[in-house]
């Protein structure tokens, strides 16, 4: 809105054995991490909007920083009020405090003053002096209009249905996908137009039909395309190869030239290695994970980084099979990228759109 070489032939029994081992290890890792997760308690799921901290008094200054190249706006006391990264459209603005939680699946809560928004153009050094930015900044600095974080929590369990002027539900509790014939695993490749239940024509003219058996379903990358593309209007590719914008899959997104690679893939394929330092991350970044033996060197999962929860853990929200939809919960592995948990150990790269 992805010269052929001869490969050794594996016996069918060997292949099945490898796949079975892969699935078993993945399930056991998830079970182990789930056992460590805290028990669920009732918490509020209502945003706690306080007086705006976005309207700061006193002198404000613009400053250039490196790694990655970016510009920050500082308040009179040196506090960061906004961050803009070169070649990225994502802006992180200081605003009213909000509380995000999901009582059905976790005790974790995120209380944040970060508001993540999409600028109309990628940031460049000195853009604070340009008219397009001044107009945009005047409208959104301190605004309480829904941002990327607000969009993302409009698809978790129990989220109320929201409909557009034509009566099409564009928000509300989403599932990951229907069961496969085995009744155990769930079907993937569920994009935002499947959730909407309508065909969608992309900028290159490609029209993708919605599948009724996938209605109100969003897989992990479909969830990102819903909030960043359909809701925030970032350009989208129809597939990983057709059109321009954000690709269709987690692997396509991870390897795309769109945005800025904040943490690059490191180490040997196909598993690569976990990054040693994740301090460079900021709320709104896309996180990519390598989770499955069967997918070669592909990244298998994508999530939205939320920042620190009230326990000091770095947490994210994503759509996953175990919860059957978008969640920041603990089922199938706590949504954390610090420590030694399931997802923390499988984090591989990050991107800022």
TrEMBL record:
<feature type="domain" description="NlpC/P60">
    <location>
        <begin position="182"/>
        <end position="353"/>
    </location>
</feature>
<dbReference type="InterPro" id="IPR038765">
    <property type="entry name" value="Papain-like_cys_pep_sf"/>
</dbReference>
<comment type="similarity">
    <text>Belongs to the peptidase C40 family.</text>
</comment>
<keyword id="KW-0788">Thiol protease</keyword>
<keyword id="KW-0378">Hydrolase</keyword>
<keyword id="KW-0645">Protease</keyword>
<protein>
    <recommendedName>
        <fullName>NlpC/P60 domain-containing protein</fullName>
    </recommendedName>
</protein>
<dbReference type="Pfam" id="PF00877">
    <property type="entry name" value="NLPC_P60"/>
</dbReference>
<dbReference type="InterPro" id="IPR000064">
    <property type="entry name" value="NLP_P60_dom"/>
</dbReference>
<feature type="region of interest" description="Disordered">
    <location>
        <begin position="35"/>
        <end position="66"/>
    </location>
</feature>
């Amino acid at each position: 809105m992805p010269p052929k070489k001869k490969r050794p032939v594996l016996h069918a029994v060997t292949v099945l054995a490898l796949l079975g081992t892969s699935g078993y290890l993945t399930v056991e890792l998830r079970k182990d991490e789930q056992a460590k997760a805290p028990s669920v308690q009732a918490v509020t799921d209502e945003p706690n909007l306080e007086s705006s901290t976005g309207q700061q008094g006193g002198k404000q200054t613009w400053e250039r920083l490196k790694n990655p190249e970016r510009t920050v706006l500082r308040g009179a006391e040196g506090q960061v009020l906004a961050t803009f990264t070169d070649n990225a459209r994502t802006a992180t603005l200081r605003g009213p405090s909000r509380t995000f939680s999901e009582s059905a699946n976790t005790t974790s809560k995120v209380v944040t003053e970060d508001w993540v928004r999409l600028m109309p153009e990628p940031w460049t050094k000195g853009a604070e002096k340009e008219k397009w930015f001044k107009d945009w900044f005047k409208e959104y600095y301190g605004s309480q209009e829904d941002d990327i974080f607000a969009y993302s929590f409009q698809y978790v369990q129990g989220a109320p249905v929201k409909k557009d002027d034509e009566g099409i539900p564009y928000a509300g509790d989403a599932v990951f996908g229907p069961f496969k014939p085995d009744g155990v695993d769930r079907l993937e490749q569920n994009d935002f137009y499947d959730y909407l239940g309508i065909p969608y024509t992309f900028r290159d003219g490609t029209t993708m039909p919605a599948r009724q058996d996938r209605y109100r379903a969003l897989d992990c990358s479909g969830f990102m395309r819903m909030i960043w593309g359909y809701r925030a209007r970032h350009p989208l590719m129809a597939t990983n190869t057709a059109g321009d914008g954000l690709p269709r899959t987690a692997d396509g997104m991870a390897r795309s030239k769109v945005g800025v690679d904040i943490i690059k893939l490191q180490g040997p394929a196909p598993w690569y290695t976990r990054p040693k330092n994740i301090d460079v991350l900021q709320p709104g970044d896309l996180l990519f994970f390598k989770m499955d033996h069967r997918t070669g060197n592909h990244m298998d999962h994508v999530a939205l980084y939320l920042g620190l929860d009230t326990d000091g853990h770095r947490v994210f929200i994503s759509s996953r099979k175990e919860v059957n939809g978008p969640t920041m919960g603990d089922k199938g592995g706590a949504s954390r990228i610090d420590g030694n948990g399931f997802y923390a150990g499988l984090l591989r790269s990050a991107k800022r759109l």
